[in-house]
């Protein structure tokens, strides 16, 4: 650990000890006790049904523990009774804001076991849709961030511009939120005519949106004072907890599965940058996401120009039986690393699917991270970690 | 140029949006009065073309939610060619889709080998009573009118696909 | 108003004053809610806002009031019922008490206190009591946190507000709000009397501090952590429903209006126009029509100030509790004190 | 272009990983990814070696597999017929195994992007292995989840409370012999439900589709 990490770690430690001592002292002198505050399950800051049990001393958190499970749908069990095509529609609903991105690693894992590869055109379109769902997901985060910190306008701007992306996804796939468009061996259908031009126009709007959010929120001194130095995650801790995505990159780890994994996708055909930030605080996490949205629009723009002609479906049997074996594929989803570990027994459906969702790991750091912070910072930290309940509970 | 403080820039963004909305109109649609047309591929509701259905049960079996209920009986139909044997056909007694369960994945439409199921972008069929979301074959057939033509494909698409 | 009402018996005068007070509080509140909360906020967020009730949704507020009046008046089981019910009334009461000293025209005023501004600053802190009571008696942890935050915040920002006013008082040499208006409109700047002497120019620092303090007193963003809907779920108002919530709601915007009025009286010349325009020399020589036009001018200036308050509210995220306190004690108060010192020195020198 | 090919380190490191773990490895399998199976006793120490010696700092996930095929199939049986016989012999996957339950974990070296999947047998009688939450802090929640879903105990874990299910929930949902109620409460609508012709004439006539 570097020097700054240690200092910040100490800060949290000291706050923790101080709050403990204050608690004890007050108990003796005034016969008061700390307060247990239940944040959630229904609370505006948890966007979903996460409950955080926080032990407070004044406004300082002595310890906090997230309690999840209010949205547990048992997807790992459900996949065991479904066939492969049926699973894609299920996993759509894990991270419902970036749903197309959830299908891709599952399909890739199944394709890996079947040893088929989607045709180049399908790979391109997949990548474009993947990035579009990232934009749809992260743009909402950028707006929601404002709401969590008390600015009401950004979220409406985010909803406004996300709508364009959702319309694109809908006109290509038929589903706004749950596309179910990915198939083993390719895609369900080709793009409708005129889609590429529309997408280009929307990407321009989205870049405008990013600038707007940067002016409205990121450049705002109040926003910066609320997020800078709050919830610092040092590099080592981030890795140990398995944080991924922007949360990990914000801690200075140069890690992006889009670049680092050799997947049959088209990312390596575009020119883009992986942003990292050395600070590891809430501001860094939010800022990385803003930059990533910009990069995504760039990726989409470049790939739109180079979609190869050809079929979008490889030759696969009509009734899909995946050969026996085990495969793991993970991709860099909007929330972080999302992977599927598929165990196949040569059946119509998988034998066991382990769904590694990003938010589960990302949120598991909160008991460590929330010690010693103030109540308003709980909201900041949760917002900047960015989780989606479906992605935690699966 | 000196750096404009972020606080001022933020005010500029909101004021700019204010003027944009006032001059160019808002981004919202006043729903019951005006409506957006959903894209052609939009998965709104499933329409049933009864004549094409052979009650092969494929859709019902591939439905992940088990929300399609089919009952049929066999019947003799007049032969297709002159002098042929009378054909034995499956006649639909019941074809229900429970939209309270359906998750709009579209697998049934995809697996249907006889083009009996179609997606329609229609979306206004909410019901005050959840039981009414079970659409029977008459209701499903009525949706057929709203089924649009499949859209043209983007340049470079493989023309062989249906 | 006294001159206008000379022939009306005392009980009639009192009745008219009460009616006038209600109009002076509710009319701006309603207008602010419709124009700023419903429409301006929506337009800033690129939507239209309410459009169904009345033309362009102008009757929406009445619909909302109707809705709130119909709702059940819920008192939490473990709440301290009596003071729980009292709290919103106290908050609204302070607004009504506040409007009593605001002058709307040369003769259109409710009471003409010699120490008007002193009184106004005193009664404005009554609302703190109401909020603290609401937060405490709700028997809800969020409300308690919100109430305590509100108390800390309102008391902290009372100080810069008072100190900002002191500068005006020094310049006007009076604490009577009517006389402050007259002093601004009959004064001159560097010998030019075309614009009178609105204190927003000579007391610009005081004005900014006063507006910031108002923003905080009204618990509007970026100072809205007592309400903080995304962390404290509306803070001290969490447990209120029905018409008690309505009273809080009216209180919030009515207070915004009244504070903006006071600010316009102190810094923008209140109801008046520069006297030189019409050749008036003193308050007695003003034409009577100013009693009708004056309130309109006042209303316009108030709306301008509320626009700024709301604009900031819709654009900024919220500060944290400790940042807010630090800002008040380490930033605003020293600056305000410095402002007083400079003002008094200049006053003595010139 | 910011692509760094990672096939190279993946291959070279296999030998390295195997050498570092030595005889703690029972079995291994290499096909794009590297699967290792370690001795149950050496579970925690192997993870520690992986982290400290080989730089596998990034904790990806931890979970378990129940290798016994489900006796219920996909819940698509006709309730009126007797339940079909299903083969429930336990057959482990890559890198083999000896027990019904296996815990597996995936860790990555964030610098070289090499990953390994480490499996470990969970003894059938005790159903307990060591907790690795003090090696990888992130394993804490994953072990809780695995405990809840498979009933595997993790010795040394500070807090094996349920994450998802109610405290008084009985059973371990992800075990294969735990029935999925949603598929039990009603019969599969896909069971062929076509009434035959009254005459019982079963030849397919002119049905030429």
State the end-to-end CA separation of chain D.
Answer: 54 Å
Rg of chain D to the nearest angstrom? Answer: 23 Å
What is the oligomeric state here? heterotetramer
Shape of chain D: elongated
* Class of secondary structure makeup of chain B: alpha+beta
Would you identify the regions of chain B where 5 or more consecutive residues have pLDDT less than 50? Answer: none
Mean pLDDT reading of chain D: 77
Considering the protein shown, what is the CATH homologous superfamily of chain D? NADH:ubiquinone oxidoreductase Nqo5 subunit
User: Helix fraction of chain B?
Assistant: 10-25%
Order of the strands making up the biggest sheet of chain D? 1-2-5-4-3
Helix fraction of chain D?
10-25%
| Interface with most residues | A-D, 51 and 49 residues
The CATH topology assignment of chain D is Beta Polymerase, domain 2
**CATH topology of the domain at 45-146 in chain B, which one?**
Alpha-Beta Plaits
* Quantity of strands of chain B, as a count: 5
Neighbour order of strands in the largest sheet of chain B: 2-3-5
H and E string of chain B: HEHEEHEEH
Instruction: Tell me the number of structural domains of chain D.
Output: 1
Task: Please characterize this protein's 3D structure.
The complex is a heterotetramer of chains A (394), B (162), C (350) and D (209). Chain A has 394 residues and is mainly α. Helices cover 52% and strands 12% of the residues of chain A. Chain A has a domain at 75-201 and 254-359: Cytochrome-c3 Hydrogenase, chain B (Orthogonal Bundle), CATH 1.10.645.10. A three-stranded antiparallel β-sheet of chain A has the order 1-2-3. In chain A, strands 6-7-8 form a three-stranded antiparallel β-sheet. In chain A, helix 3 runs antiparallel to helix 4 (99-114), helix 4 (99-114) runs antiparallel to helix 5 and helix 6 (153-173) packs antiparallel against helix 7 (195-218). The longest helix of chain A is centred in the middle third of the chain and has 29 residues, at 120-148. Residues 1-8 of chain A have low confidence and may be disordered. The mean pLDDT of chain B is 81. Chain B has a domain at 45-146: Alpha-Beta Plaits. In chain B, the strands form two sheets. Chain B has a three-stranded antiparallel β-sheet with strand order 2-3-5. In chain B, strands 1-4 form a two-stranded antiparallel ribbon. Chain B is 22% helix and 20% strand. Chain B has 162 residues and is of the alpha+beta class. Chain C has helices at 10-44, 60-70, 81-99, 116-124, 126-137, 141-172, 177-186, 199-202, 204-217, 242-267, 290-315, 321-349. Chain C has one domain. Chain C contains twelve helices and no strands. The mean pLDDT of chain C is 82. In chain C, helix 1 (10-44) packs across helix 10 and helix 10 (242-267) crosses helix 11 (290-315). Chains A and D meet through helix 2, helix 9, strand 6, strand 7 and strand 8 of A and strand 3 and helix 3 of D. Strand 2 (68-77) of chain B pairs parallel with strand 8 of chain D.
């Amino acid at each position: 650990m570097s020097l700054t990490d240690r200092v910040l770690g100490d800060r949290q430690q000291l706050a923790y000890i101080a709050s403990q001592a204050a608690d004890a002292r007050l108990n003796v002198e005034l016969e008061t006790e700390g307060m247990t505050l239940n944040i959630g399950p229904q609370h505006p800051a948890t966007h979903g049904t996460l409950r955080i049990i926080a032990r407070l001393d004044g406004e300082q958190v002595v310890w906090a523990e997230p309690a999840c499970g209010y949205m547990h749908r048992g997807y790992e069990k459900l996949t065991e009774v479904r066939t492969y095509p049926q699973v894609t529609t299920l996993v759509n609903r894990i991270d419902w804001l970036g749903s197309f991105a959830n299908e891709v690693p599952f399909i890739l894992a199944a394709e890996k076991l079947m040893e088929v590869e989607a045709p180049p055109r399908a790979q391109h379109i997949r990548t474009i849709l993947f990035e579009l769902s990232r934009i749809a997901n992260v743009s909402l985060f950028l707006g929601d961030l404002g709401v969590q910190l008390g600015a009401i306008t950004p979220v409406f701007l985010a909803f406004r511009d996300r709508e364009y992306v959702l319309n694109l996804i809908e006109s290509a796939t038929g589903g706004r939120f749950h596309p179910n468009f990915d198939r083993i061996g390719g895609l369900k259908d080709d793009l409708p005519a005129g889609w590429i031009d529309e997408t280009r126009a929307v990407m321009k709007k989205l870049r405008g949106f990013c600038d707007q959010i940067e002016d409205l929120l990121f450049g705002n001194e109040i926003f910066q004072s609320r997020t800078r130095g709050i919830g610092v995650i040092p590099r080592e801790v981030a890795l140990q907890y398995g944080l991924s995505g922007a949360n990990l990159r914000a801690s200075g780890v140069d890690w992006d599965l889009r670049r680092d994994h050799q997947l049959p996708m088209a990312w390596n055909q575009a020119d883009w940058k992986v942003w990292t930030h050395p600070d590891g605080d809430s501001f860094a996490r939010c800022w990385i996401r803003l930059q990533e949205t910009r990069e995504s629009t760039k990726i989409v723009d470049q790939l739109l120009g180079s979609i190869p002609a050809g079929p979008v479906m490889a030759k696969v049997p009509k009734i899909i039986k995946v050969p026996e074996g085990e495969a793991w594929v993970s991709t860099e989803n909007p929330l972080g690393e999302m992977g599927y570990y598929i165990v196949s027994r040569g059946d119509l459906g998988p034998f066991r699917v382990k769904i590694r969702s990003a938010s589960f790991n990302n949120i598991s750091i909160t008991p460590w991270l929330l010690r010693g912070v103030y109540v308003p910072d709980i909201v900041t930290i949760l917002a900047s970690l960015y989780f989606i309940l479906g992605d935690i509970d699966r | 140029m000196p750096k404009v403080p972020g606080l001022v820039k933020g005010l500029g963004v909101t004021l700019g949006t204010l003027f944009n909305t006032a001059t160019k109109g808002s981004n919202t649609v006043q729903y019951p009065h005006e409506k957006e047309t959903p894209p052609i591929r939009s998965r709104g509701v499933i329409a049933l073309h009864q004549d094409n259905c052979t009650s092969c049960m494929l859709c019902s079996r591939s439905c992940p939610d088990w929300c399609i209920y089919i009952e049929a009986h066999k019947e003799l139909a007049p032969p297709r060619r002159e002098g042929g044997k009378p054909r034995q056909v499956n006649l639909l007694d019941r074809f229900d889709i429970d939209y309270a369960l359906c998750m709009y994945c579209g697998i049934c439409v995809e697996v249907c080998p006889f083009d009996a199921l179609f997606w329609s972008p229609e979306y206004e069929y909410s019901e005050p009573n959840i039981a009414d979301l079970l659409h029977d074959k008459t209701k499903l057939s009525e949706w057929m009118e709203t089924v649009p033509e499949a859209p043209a494909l983007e340049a470079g698409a493989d023309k062989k696909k249906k | 108003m006294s001159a206008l009402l000379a022939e009306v018996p005392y009980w009639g005068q009192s009745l008219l004053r009460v009616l006038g007070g209600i109009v002076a509080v509710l009319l701006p509140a309603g207008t602010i809610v419709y124009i700023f909360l419903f429409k301006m906020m929506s337009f800033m967020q690129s939507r239209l806002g309410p459009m169904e009730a009345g033309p362009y949704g102008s009757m929406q507020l009445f619909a909302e009031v109707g809705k709130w009046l119909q709702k059940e008046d819920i008192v939490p089981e473990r709440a301290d019922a009596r003071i729980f019910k009292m709290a919103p009334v106290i908050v609204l009461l302070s607004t009504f008490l506040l409007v009593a000293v605001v002058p709307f025209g040369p003769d259109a005023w409710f009471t003409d206190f010699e120490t008007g501004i002193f009184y106004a600053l005193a009664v404005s802190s009554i609302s703190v009591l109401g909020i603290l009571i609401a937060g405490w008696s709700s028997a809800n942890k969020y409300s308690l946190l919100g109430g305590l935050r509100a108390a800390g915040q309102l008391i902290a920002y009372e100080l810069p507000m008072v100190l900002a006013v002191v500068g005006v008082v020094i310049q006007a040499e009076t604490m009577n709000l009517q006389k402050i208006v007259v002093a601004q409109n009959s004064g001159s700047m560097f010998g030019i009397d075309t614009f009178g002497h609105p204190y927003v120019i000579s007391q610009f620092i005081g004005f900014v501090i006063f507006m910031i303090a108002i923003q905080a007193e009204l618990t509007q963003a970026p100072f809205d952590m007592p309400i903080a809907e995304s962390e404290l779920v509306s803070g001290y108002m969490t447990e209120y429903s029905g018409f008690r919530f309505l009273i809080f709601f009216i209180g919030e915007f009515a207070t915004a209006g009244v504070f903006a009025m006071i600010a316009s009286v102190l810094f923008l010349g209140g109801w008046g126009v520069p006297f030189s325009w019409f050749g008036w020399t003193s308050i007695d020589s003003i034409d009577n029509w100013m009693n009708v036009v004056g309130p309109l001018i006042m209303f316009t200036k108030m709306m301008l100030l509320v626009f700024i308050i709301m604009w900031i509210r819709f654009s900024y995220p919220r500060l944290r509790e400790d940042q807010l306190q630090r800002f008040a004690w380490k930033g605003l108060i020293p600056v305000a004190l410095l402002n007083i010192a400079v003002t008094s020195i200049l006053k003595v020198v010139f | 272009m910011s692509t760094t090919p990672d096939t190279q380190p993946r291959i070279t490191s296999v030998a390295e990983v195997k050498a570092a773990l030595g005889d703690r490895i029972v079995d291994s399998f290499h096909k794009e990814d590297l699967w290792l199976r370690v001795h149950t006793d050496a579970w925690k120490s192997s993870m520690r070696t992986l982290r400290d010696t080989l730089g596998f700092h990034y904790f990806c996930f931890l979970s378990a597999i129940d290798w016994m095929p489900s006796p219920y199939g996909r819940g698509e049986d006709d309730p009126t017929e007797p339940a079909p016989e299903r083969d429930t012999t336990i057959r482990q996957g890559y890198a083999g195994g000896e027990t019904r339950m296996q815990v597996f974990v995936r860790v990555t070296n964030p610098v070289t992007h090499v990953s390994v999947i480490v499996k470990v047998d969970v003894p059938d009688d005790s159903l307990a292995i060591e907790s690795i939450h003090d090696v990888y802090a992130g394993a804490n929640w994953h072990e809780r989840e695995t405990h809840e879903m498979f009933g595997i105990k993790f010795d040394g874990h500070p807090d094996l409370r349920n994450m998802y299910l109610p405290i008084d929930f009985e059973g371990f949902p992800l075990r294969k012999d735990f029935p999925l109620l949603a598929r039990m409460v009603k019969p599969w609508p896909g069971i062929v439900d076509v009434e035959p012709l009254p005459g019982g004439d079963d030849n397919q006539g002119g049905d030429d589709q």
